[in-house]
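Structure first, sequence second, as always.
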């Protein structure tokens, strides 16, 4: 009986501590980016700014583009509550035509993996209006 009371109390204590601990939380300034028309052969970079609105440090463990045509740079150190950071996605504008790409951001933030989006249209050199 003492064991049951002990483990029951331990379970309740663990649950109450877990409920009061607030996770890290992304607050994206923008989660989508439209390049519009861009010139072929000239890489472009989208910047996705965010603030950690949670109460725990935000740690990005990985961020990757949906294809090999996108390089991603992200903060490697923890973003403390209230601090900001930027995820950068550089698109290699090699192929002519419209594109829709994503960046998957894996972290300890509430809500799990976050998806960022960018799009545009690659035009022949001289035809793009920036």
């Amino acid at each position: 009986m003492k064991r049951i009371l002990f483990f029951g109390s331990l379970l309740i204590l663990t649950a109450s501590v877990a409920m009061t601990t607030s996770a890290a939380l992304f607050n994206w300034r923008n989660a989508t980016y439209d390049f519009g028309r861009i010139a072929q052969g000239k890489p472009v970079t989208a910047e996705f700014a965010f603030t950690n609105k949670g109460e725990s440090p935000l740690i990005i463990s990985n961020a990757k583009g949906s294809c090999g045509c996108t390089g991603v740079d992200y903060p490697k150190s923890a973003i403390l509550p209230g601090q900001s950071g930027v995820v950068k996605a550089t698109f290699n504008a090699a192929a002519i035509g419209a594109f829709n790409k994503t960046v998957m951001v894996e972290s300890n933030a509430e809500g799990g993996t976050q998806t960022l989006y960018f799009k545009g249209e690659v035009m022949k050199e001289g035809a793009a209006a920036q």
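Margin note: The first strand starts at residue 26 and ends at 28.
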